[in-house]
Here is the input.
Amino acid sequence: MARKSKKIVEVADDGDATEEESVRENDNTQMDLDDVIPSIVDKDSGDEDDDAVAAEEVKDGKEKTNDKKSKKKNKKNKKDNNEEAKEIIPFMDTFYLLSSEESPEERSIAARDLIRHCFLSGEGINHKDAAYALTRLMNGLCTGRAASRQGFASCLSSFLRVANSSSLNKGDVSAMDEILKDDDDAKKLKDGMEGDDAHHATIVRQKLLATTEFLASEGNNDNNNNKGQPKNRSVGKPKGIEERDHVFGRLFGILAVVRSGILGLKDFPSVVIEGYTKDLIELYHYKKWMKEPSAHALVELLSSLDTESNLNVITEIANDIITPEFFLHGPENGKSSTGTNRAQWLQKLGPEQIAVALHLQTLQNNDIKYDYPLNESLVTAESVPTLSAALSSTSSVVYPRCHFVWNTLWMYLTEKVESSGRRQLRTNKEFPSIIEKVIQHVVVELLLGKGESISTPTNERRSLALQIICALSGSSDLKIALPPNLISSVLCPDVVVRVFENVLCASGGLGKKRSNDGVEHYLKPLTSEAILDLVDHCCEDNDVSRRMAFAKAFTLAVPRFDTKTKTQTVSSLLMLSNVVREASEESEKVRKALWQSYLSFLEEEIVKSTSLHSATVYIELMYKLAKLDLTIAPADEGRRVLRFFMSGAFFDCSGLADPSVEKKTPSKKKKKVKTKAVIPTQELSSGLRIKEILETNEMTSISHPARAIMSARFYSLLSDFISAINSQNRGGSKDKAFYGKGSRPESIYRALSEISGIVSLLETSGAKQFPVRSGSMDTDENSEEEDPMETSRKCMLRVQKNANDALIKECDGAGDETMLRAKAVFATSCASLMTSLYLQLNSCGNPDADGNAEAEEDDDDVVESVHEYISDLAECVDGFCQLIDDESEAEKMDDEGNPLAEMAGLLVNILSSPVGGEDSGETNPIQASASKLTRETVKLTWSGIISVITDLNEENKSLKSLVDEDVMNILIESVCGEKSMGEKENIEDDESIAESESSDEELGGSAVFVDASEAGMDLDGAKDEDSNDLKESDEETSKDSKDKDGDEDVELDPAKLENLLLEDSDAEMSDSGVLEHHAGADKALAALIKLKQDARKASQTERERIELCNRLRCAVLLDSLFTQSVFKSGWLPIEAVLGSIVPILRSRRLIAKSIETSSSVNVKKSLSERKALLDRLTALVTGKISKFRCGDDSDAEEVALKASSDIYEEMKRSLNVDHCSCCSVALITVVRCIPGVEENSDIKDIYVGTVKDWSSRKATKIHACVFENLIQRMPSLASLILTEPLMVSARGAHSSFLKCESIKLVSSIYKHDGTKGEELLSKKAISSMKEYCNKFADTLTDALGDSSLQKSKHRDAVLTVTKHFINYVKSQDVGILTAEEIHALHNALKTVKANCRSVGMKKMCSHMSDTVTSLSKREAPKRTKPNKVPKSSKKQKKSKSRK
Here is the structure.
């Protein structure tokens, strides 16, 4: 017979036993005979051909054993096969090694050698030793030492298999009969037996029973003598642990017989099989802890019998033995088949009885007929509730083992599919309902504790529930593949929440609280591993319906399952976590099918949701998927979500109809009309889908709160779509772009036009758009004024027509390509902004209940602003288009205004309003999302305008004059604040105002009394001993104050007001009965004033925060203007660039000052916005404007000098190093615009004054970064104007630190060769550096001997500078130092070396001294005359005459 699969059966201890025992069949407990002695094992004992083959193999084995040469060849073959030749273990030693618990392989080798000794000896079968081995093996079953029971049982199984092999028979006498003849106990047992009773199988069974006797009655069956008893056994019942060992010995012995396969032999007596069955049933009734292993052994016994050849045997055993003794055991279980008795019998069944019954009914076919109660199916949909208690009781069997009743149940319900290797449900209509009942009654109610009478589930119950779910989900060894419609029943919400979410989300040992020592939930590792296996097994096959079923189950139970459990379960099932651009075709196909199914599921859940929370969660999931899909073109799923959000948020789709479906009335002649399923157009598919779901669920429309969330997500997703188009058109492959190879404005315009077209198509197809709240709604119907919606629609169509015409002309190519391209970019960018503004007019309708009136008024204001912006934008576009087409229109700008200034003002207004930014008060999520889209299109429009000027400024000279003072004032003031382009006096006024505000904050509570005194209040008696109470009341009232505008009245809580005014002290009466005046009333009034003041400050802080945010948004306009491409084109006036530097620097300084002084709570609320704007202004100066290079402009010098003077004044007012560095970069940018700057004395005076201020004034605001930046960016100019002032500073600075810094700066001039900077050193700079070498040498000599620089850090810095200077001098071709200078420097180094303690510095001094000495050998420079003769008028005249 074929061997059974490997299983694990452990005995559950109920407390009577003192140790755990097990019956195992795996690598650790059983010898695999197929590998050890393949020539002997008879795998199919019922086949005569196999017996003949085995006999021949045995004969060949004997011949090889007697032939020495064959032994040598056999050993060589083993060595060639990399098998180690081991010495044969002596016969008696094998019994000891069978108990080895160190290695299963060691037990296998011992069993192999034992069987070889008994059956493959040189003289044939060694009957005597074999008989001894049989007795010894049976005795070893009753031993609990080490692994003896496993080893002896495994060897006994192999021994019986070999002994009963027909290949070893001698005629009619079997080898087993010959062995038993030499067994004294077997002889005694055989005496008096006849027929089948004398069969060797019967004797082996009797011998096993006698050896493993554990009941006193077993020794007195027929006679009271010791006949047949082993010699080493005494009469009577064993005591204590010996009894338990005998019980397990009998179980292991019977299993050894079963697994040997001899029960399936043709001539094997059925009486013996029935006897073994009775023995197992007797073990089942012996003790509770023997029920499961004995029942499992009974199942194995039945499995070892072939249903075809042993059909009658199985039937007889089932009906005659198992049914009466196993199922109907006891007087209370009668054989009546009435429904009442059967119901009572089902209630009394244990899990082991259920397992045996299921196994028998699994084997049942048309030829097997069982008696009552097995004549009917045990497990049905009706009987599961009755059996649920018995099934749930198996939770006492702890992980990793599961009670074998569950595997038996799954085997009963499923069958194996050979093609896929998985198991699927049998074709029985009742089986799906059985699984549903098992999940509901066993798992949910009993194991997970949802039943009414069930307490909190234990970890053991949760573990069993987890194993059941994993088995049904296909992650167990059985690999069950349930149909997708059953997965939702298995992974019902209760199961997902209680089995997975509650465990994975728990962090403490108890599952509720976080443990201090980091102990996690006991089942968390097991659950994490189980869910990973579940996902892996589900994803092995690309079955879309199965993966989708699992994803739906988890999502319906816990919509944010991945987020809560911190896993990738749903993401992995839906392929959301591994989205790649270059995916295989098959993977992309599966992903697309999954996402489409997932979106259909989410659409249905959103539409039919009755609660806002659930609808919001599903909307967010849909938004997340769409945003992920937008990263890869063509983003079909992302566009589908856009259409769904728009159709559901802005339209009533109940009347929507597909215009492509034409209704045809059948003619009278034709009775039958064939109709084809018409797929709705893609644009209307989402609306029709919404209509279908509403009709299915008998709903009229989606709730207003859900529509509001959908509208907000629509604008956000559309904005993300625009950003994705931006990023893909800036870089990457154009072949995979969303709209082909068009430009960025063209692609964005097409995307927005597509959405706008769907809106129009929905309206014409029967969908009703929700009404838009606007001022026109309240106007008189008879008014002649045109509806604002219609006006805005006409403006949008006009701008779109311009864009379409420009695109058509560009495609036709009739004209200048550059001109056509520039017009197309400009027209499409403006049309994109117009479309985005018009889309904001869509409304999600009025709320179902009365909403906030103030919020509705704010919405009305926003709608009116949008109408105004649309009208103004249309006018600006028309004016700009006329200017581009006709240059003569520029002459009319003085009268009609600058179109660029109008456009800039319009864009700034949009970004500073709620349409493109945010408003004070409560945040509207819809408007906030729509403003994000508006900001993207505003940026695009401004870039399009800059692009058309850049491309066409040569052909149309009038475009250069567009950027005038008005345009720059608008842009700079939008970023830097109002009046930032004014004169210096205005800035000082702003600073004084800021200082006054800060002083008010510093006054704190005293400002309250100042305001009170100004109001005419007498608060002289307000300060008394209760001042502490006043502070506490002030804190409480300030916390409860609301952020409101300063001009509005402050609403106070009447209860608080009463508490402030009515204190205990105020209730005191005088003797005359008159209420005396007390300071408590004055304190209450002071608190009210402070409350008003706090509210005013909070409102002001909110306004400031919004203003900062608006300035941040408007900074985009300056970023687009100050770009490298604009600077290279040269059309931007120098006045526009340099004139904007100082206002930006001033604004930056004010913001930095406000950050440094932000001590109050209100100011800290806008601290992040202030820091962001500060960084933005810094990047604007250092990253944008610093790249400006001036062209050939006659007025450049005058403008640059004025700007440099202003920047220098701003630098002297720097707050910190960062601002000073920013000013220095700006100053260098301006200096570069001055032609011949190296000869300019004004710039030299600025930097000389800067050095003087830095080195002489202790309160200076200038830092060394000013000189470092100049040396790095303009090394030639730095060497000409900084060398001499810095050397003067090195001698006369007011501190040793500044002296040291001055020397370092001069050294950096000499160290900088110009190769790492932006420009190389000029000849004049190189000459100047050489001329100043002698002075610098004297400076270093003086510094080395300066007493103020004798600290180690200062001395080391000077020595390092000296080293660099000496290297510079050494690198020159001729000597540039005189002998006196070299000698002085040499002596100074020697002095430093003598006074220095550092070994490293001494070596440096020695090395420099040697280098200086080598310099003296060079030719000394002849500069005596130039040094002594001053520059006289005669000398100048003489030089002129030479020229």
